[in-house]
């Protein structure tokens, strides 16, 4: 499979959840270290977020990385260098985002990492970390979330945007008294 075919498969990959893999934190650390080596002065913090950051939680096997920058304009400036560093992105998709930028890494036709560039310390920065921390601390909430994710993956197997939107209401409800 050539690189273009691999990227196209990754872009159109179906939503599929896998049991928790204890190697996920190590995969995050490896990519965090790679990013810090390549861009030593660019990120104010790099955090592991998403379901792969919650021990025991099933997930799409994609490592979600939250990288803090000092401004969205700085995030925009980093898109091209990050694409040279084995990431891909959609400028059209990023233009639709408010307060963040998104990239992905892939290998062998599947997504391996999502990189979320966000202003360090922003409301959305704190929101993403608060949800991760709440799932880590509350086993019952994590189990409810996992159950719902399986339902959404069944309902939206070919529509990642609908799957992500469905998670939004759950996340908002979980955080309503936290922020």
UniProtKB/TrEMBL annotation:
Pfam families: GrpB (PF04229). It comes from the Bacteria. InterPro entries: GrpB/CoaE, NT_sf. PANTHER family: GRPB DOMAIN PROTEIN (AFU_ORTHOLOGUE AFUA_1G01530) (PTHR34822), GRPB FAMILY PROTEIN (PTHR34822:SF1). This is GrpB family protein. It comes from Halomonas campaniensis.
């Amino acid at each position: 499979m050539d690189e273009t075919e691999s990227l196209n498969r990754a872009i159109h990959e179906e939503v599929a959840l896998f049991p928790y893999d204890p190697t996920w934190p190590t995969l995050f650390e490896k990519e965090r270290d790679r990013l810090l080596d390549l861009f030593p002065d660019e990120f104010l913090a790099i955090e592991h977020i998403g379901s792969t950051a919650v021990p025991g939680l099933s997930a799409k096997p994609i490592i979600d990385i939250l990288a803090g920058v000092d401004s969205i304009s700085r995030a925009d400036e980093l898109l091209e260098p990050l694409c040279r560093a084995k990431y891909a992105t959609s400028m059209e998709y990023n233009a639709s985002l408010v307060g963040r930028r998104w990239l992905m890494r892939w290998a062998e036709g599947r997504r391996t990492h999502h990189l979320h560039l966000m202003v360090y310390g922003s409301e959305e920065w704190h929101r993403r970390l608060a949800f991760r921390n709440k799932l880590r601390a509350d086993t019952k909430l994590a189990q409810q979330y996992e159950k719902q994710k399986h339902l959404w993956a069944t309902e939206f197997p070919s529509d990642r945007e609908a799957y992500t939107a469905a998670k939004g209401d759950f996340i908002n409800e979980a955080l309503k008294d936290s922020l």
